[in-house]
Amino acid sequence: MFAKDLKEKYQFLTEYFEQGFKNPDRAIAHSILFYGQDVSAQYKLASEIARLLNCKEFQTQDCSCLNCNWVKERQHPAVLTVSKVDSKPSDDESKTVISVAQSRMIKSSLMNTSDYHRVFIFCDAEIKEGVWTPSGLNMFNIQEVAINALLKTIEEPPENTTFFFLTRDKNDLIETIISRSQSFFVPSYDTENTDCDCVENILDDYPNIERKDSLDMAQRFFTLSKEHGSEKILAQIQNFLLSLLKSNLENDVLKYKIFADVKSAEYAQKQIEKHITPLLAFENMCLNITK
Description:
By secondary structure, the protein is an alpha/beta fold. The protein has two domains: 4-185, 3-Layer(aba) Sandwich (Rossmann fold), CATH 3.40.50; 211-289, no CATH class. It is 46% helix and 12% strand. It is built from twelve helices and seven strands. The chain has helices at residues 4-9, 11-22, 39-54, 66-72, 100-109, 144-148, 151-155, 175-180, 214-228, 230-246, 252-273, 278-289; strands at residues 31-35, 79-82, 118-122, 124-128, 131-135, 161-167, 182-185. Strands 2-3-6-1-7 form a five-stranded parallel sheet. Strands 4-5 form a two-stranded antiparallel sheet. A hairpin with a 2-residue loop joins strand 4 (124-128) and strand 5 (131-135). The chain is elongated, with a radius of gyration of 21 Å. The protein starts with a helix and ends with a helix.
């Protein structure tokens, strides 16, 4: 059934879902939440489950039936990735979030019957130099109103419909999704450092860092970026801020400052990708953080 590499890495998960395919009494849940640091692995698992749910022939890892090929090529009409860059209605002008318009599109599509098993994979995603890469959902990239618009559908979907939600930390999603989904931890075998150990000493005084220190802070980040790469340093800054956010959810003033500063870090990365010098991008970010 599952591809060999997935079976070797995720024996429990693949065996669990294979039993669900074989035994109607253990059918898989209609809403599934995968969480863990390796969102690419989560996406691969969700896609493989979607393939097996739609395979009309042998349900083997190397099946080349039309449905299997469609899923492998991300072209299946009933297996949709839903992100800020995928499955957007033509009139949807949102660029940074999964929107209400996307939720309405999904609800509308489910009003029609289908011979396929419909699968919706919710994640964040980026396209860089033509390469599509999934990342985790969080409160920044999926609007709560968009989720609320789908709650009834997620709770009572039409037959043969499955929703997947992919995130690094399931607490990054609103409780109403967690409570309606069956959650599975997907361990990471990626050795890349996803902590914030490179930057936490620089951000020790956050959010009380004074503006006069912003250029010095930017220089320190820039120095680190020459050793580790700007993308990793900016990712660690976001990790630090998101970790702080989780322990301050009741503090509205700090919460909204953290929201803004995460956006500043994201914007700094976009500036660097557009060939703005990294030092200038770090300086702009640090000036915003210390306002």
